[in-house]
Amino acid sequence: MMTPSIKAVWRNYRHVGRAFSSNKRIVDLRSDTVTQPSSAMLHAATQAKTGDDVMGEDPTVTALEHYAADLFGKEGALYLPTGTMANMCAILAHCHYNKSAEMIIGTKSHINLYEGGGYANLAGVSCKQIPEDENAMFSIDDLKDAYFNDNDDHYAKSTLICLENTHNMLGGIALPASYISSIGNMARERDMKVHIDGARIMNAIVAQNNICPSALCEGADSVSICLSKGLGAPMGSILVGETEFIRLARRARKRIGGGMRQVGVIASMGLHALKNNVDRMADDHHRAQKIASELKGAGFFLPREGKVDTNIVFFGLPKCSKLTKEELPAKLFDSYGVKIAGGYSSGGRLFRLVLHMDVDDEGVDAAIDGIISLCIP
Q1: I need a labelling partner for 204 at 20 to 30 A (CA). Which of 165, 172, 238, 347 fits?
Q2: What are the two backbone dihedrals, phi and then psi, of residue 49, each rounded to the nearest 5 degrees?
Q3: Across the beta sheet with 350-354, what order do the strands follow?
Q4: CA angle, 27 as apex, 22 and 33 as ends, to 5°?
Q5: 342, 328 contact by CB (below 8 A)
Q6: How many CA atoms lie less than 13 Å away from 366 in the CB half-sphere?
């Protein structure tokens, strides 16, 4: 987790390079959320049929929800403005009838670290954190030890398990269907539900030989899918699950201000992304693996011995580096036009690079050349 001083440094990284000449190419590797809508997306928006979605009358939103539900083999779906809200509505829906609910989440999960503690301050749900291993998996023994039923007045009732696929902070690791199914089986035996924070679930699907989404997520009761991470839409997430779950999630969305009106204009771009931008993610994965291989070969530290599943690469500077971790982002942008984010892990030693549809082979080469040239003596 980032220390306060590193947090301040990271905030500076986000804004580094504002003075960089606008006529020079910028390679932005800070996140896969920085993509610009394609011309095809913008055309889809201009043609979108709209209606009042709060009243259930936006045909484009309905088409997107039906497509996502069918894709993931669930009974229904709900369109939301953000991934954080999608996860929040999932928690509220799963814990709707249990006012002493507790959920089990990973210590390095996005829900735990980067969603404002909403499960506590909005849902009023207790949380038990357990560690993930280097493959982003929970120990079954840890899960069993974390489970409490409500036969003792001292305990909150374990109601929900949250997984993350792919796992951001552990380097974009893709969880397999066999693991998700094993967690689902254990949860059902204890009257619990399983939610997948699938902000980058399409990356996990592509990384596993384009496994059918319904097969990958069969063991889960709900999945959130972000349309603006890697898929290239400007905003929006989809939450899929069974009919009653979606009814409760829709009520939760309204309570926390997520009801939208003629939002088919935006939903059309998300639908276009789901239909057209999934297979190309393999290119992002290959480019991420190339960066990891080159940096590892040059002596940089990479978790998991440099193994990269999807589109995220974490790296740390070698001991011989000419630059400090505080100096690298600004120097890299000034000299090569490459933006990266830092301040990750204990002590803020790691940088994160995220590949996406707006970064091509030339951009990858610029990043590799810049990082190695600036750091290696």
Answers
A1: 347
A2: -85, 135
A3: 312-316, 350-354, 341-344
A4: 105
A5: yes
A6: 20
Name the percent of the chain lying above pLDDT 90.
Answer: 89
What is the CA 97 to chain-centroid distance, rounded?
Answer: 28
Distance CA 15, CA 7 (A): 13
349, 8 Cβ separation under 8 angstroms? no
Parallel, antiparallel or unpaired: strands 341-344 and 101-106: unpaired
- Asked whether 309 and 166 are in contact (CB, 8 A), the reply is yes
- pLDDT tens, 191-233? 999 999 999 999 999 999 999 999 999 999 999 999 999 999 9
Please state, in angstroms and rounded to a whole number, the distance separating the CA atoms of residues 250 and 93. 9
Token pair of 370, please?
């810049």
Q: Where are the beta strands (DSSP E) in the chain?
A: 27-28, 76-80, 101-106, 126-130, 157-164, 193-198, 222-226, 237-241, 312-316, 338-339, 341-344, 350-354
Distance CA 290, CA 1 (A): 27
DSSP symbol at 36? P
Tell me the chain's radius of gyration from C-alpha atoms.
21
Q: How many CA atoms lie within 13 A of 104 on its CB side?
A: 26
pLDDT digits (tens, 9 = 90+) for 2-58: 444 444 434 444 444 444 445 678 999 999 999 999 999 999 999 999 999 999 999
How crowded is the C-beta side of 300, counted as CA atoms within 13 Å? Answer: 30
**Going by C-beta distance under 8 Å and a sequence separation of 6 or more, which residues neighbour residue 257?**
none
Identify whether the C-beta of residue 205 lies closer than 8 Å to the C-beta of residue 213: yes
Minimal CA–CA distance to 175: which of 147, 196, 146, 145?
196
Report how far Cα 165 is from the mean position of its chain's Cα atoms.
Answer: 7
SS3 category, 124: coil
Find tokens 């990284």 and name the residue: 13
Q: Which residues pair with 77 in a beta bridge?
A: 240
Tell me the average pLDDT of the chain: 93
Per-residue model confidence as pLDDT tens digits over 350-376: 999 999 999 999 999 999 999 999 999
Question: pTM of the prediction?
Answer: 0.92
Q: What type of residue sits at position 299?
A: G
Given a contact cutoff of 8 angstroms between Cβ atoms, the answer to whether 156 and 121 are in contact is no
Taking residues 248-259, what's their average pLDDT?
96
Residue 271 contacts residue 60 (beta carbons within 8 Å): yes
